[in-house]
């Protein structure tokens, strides 16, 4: 019920009785027959009413101050912290994607240069080019050249040329249930092909210490073994279980983060089928700092985050 107010004080039924008693007692005093005990009781009652009203008014002021402080301090600080978190997450994701893309481009460029040399060189010089790749630390690759003379490296490789419809291509390819870095080059009547193995361990060490990296498998590709899917546009990218592991956390804020990074990949049995699909990275802020700044420095920085 909405009671009327006088001077901010609510006039309830009980308080109306109180006012009536005050009026009666005032009339009795005017007539010379007032009772001091009744006056004392009325004064106590008035004090109780005044105290309750004061508390009610003070509670209203306190509530208003709380709301004011929330909007002046708590909300802006929360928004600033949220923006810092989102900006930091995006920055770490973009930096990680750059590191992975740069590592892939660097390895792809190495075998593309070799493939171009193999396609352009005289047959007697091709063996030295292939051996140079091995000497520079590029292991687990196969090379095949056709045209003026057939060349295989190593000599016992069973590698065959892809379908004739393939254009020049350097990048990821999925073949025989495995990932490879591929460089295919045509020069005149010669064709040169290099396939570099990219095992789950190679994927993990692509950027050493960064975390667990999983490359996608092109859609509509036959895959053996356990797998998962991620819907991308009108296609489903297929994934094997993640390889490698993420390092330990250095503090409660050093949480594990999952990031999707773009990568071009093609299917061996579908010429020129390369398309951008998201790879999956699991990492921590300390791991990223460790890659950028050196392991010890990155770990020390993580202790203060």
Descriptive overview:
The structure is a single chain. By secondary structure, the chain is of the alpha+beta class. Helix content is about 45%, strand content about 25%. The chain contains 6 helices and 12 strands. It has an 8-stranded mixed beta sheet with strand order 4-3-7-6-5-11-12-8. It has a two-stranded antiparallel sheet with strand order 1-2. The longest helix is centred in the first third of the chain and has 85 residues. The C terminus is likely disordered.
> How would the global form be characterised?
rod-shaped
Poorly predicted tracts of residues:
296-305
Strand order of the biggest β-sheet: 4-3-7-6-5-11-12-8
Structural class of the secondary structure composition?
A: alpha+beta
Q: SSE order, as H and E?
A: EEHHHEEEEEHEEEEEHH
The mean pLDDT is 78
Number of strands: 12
Individual helix count: 6
Strand content: 15-25%
Radius of gyration, taken over Cα atoms and rounded to an integer in Å: 39 Å
Largest sheet, in brief, is: 8 strands, mixed
Q: Termini distance?
A: 56 Å
Approximate helicity band: 40-55%
Descriptive tags:
305 residues; alpha+beta; two-stranded antiparallel ribbon; 6 helices; 45% helix; disordered C terminus
TL;DR?
The chain is built from six helices and twelve strands. It is of the alpha+beta class and 305 residues long.
């Amino acid at each position: 019920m909405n009671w009327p107010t006088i001077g901010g004080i609510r006039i309830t039924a009980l308080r109306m009785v109180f006012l009536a008693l005050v009026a009666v007692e005032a009339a009795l005093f005017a007539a010379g027959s007032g009772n001091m005990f009744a006056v004392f009781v009325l004064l106590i009652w008035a004090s109780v009413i005044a105290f309750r009203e004061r508390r009610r008014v003070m509670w209203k002021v306190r509530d208003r101050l709380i709301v004011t402080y929330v909007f002046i301090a708590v909300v802006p600080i929360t928004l600033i912290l949220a923006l810092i978190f989102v900006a930091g997450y995006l920055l770490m994701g973009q930096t990680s994607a750059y590191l992975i893309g740069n590592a892939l481009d660097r390895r792809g460029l190495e075998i593309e240069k070799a493939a171009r040399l193999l396609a352009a060189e005289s047959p007697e010089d091709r063996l030295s080019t292939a051996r140079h790749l091995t000497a520079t630390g590029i292991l687990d690759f196969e090379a095949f050249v056709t045209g003026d003379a057939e060349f295989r490296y190593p000599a016992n490789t069973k590698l065959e040329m892809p379908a004739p419809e393939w254009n020049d291509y350097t990048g990821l390819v999925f073949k025989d249930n495995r990932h490879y870095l591929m460089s295919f080059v045509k020069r005149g009547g010669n064709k040169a092909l290099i396939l570099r193995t990219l095992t789950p361990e190679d994927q993990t060490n692509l950027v050493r210490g960064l975390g667990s990296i999983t490359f996608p498998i092109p859609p509509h590709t036959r895959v053996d073994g356990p797998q998962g899917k991620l819907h991308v546009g009108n296609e489903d990218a297929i994934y094997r279980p993640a390889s490698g592991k993420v390092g330990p956390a250095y503090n409660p804020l050093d949480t594990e983060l999952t990031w999707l990074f773009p990568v071009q990949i093609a299917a061996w049995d579908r010429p020129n089928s390369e398309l951008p699909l998201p790879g999956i990275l699991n990492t921590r802020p300390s791991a990223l700092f460790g890659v950028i700044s050196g392991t010890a420095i990155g770990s020390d920085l993580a202790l203060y985050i």
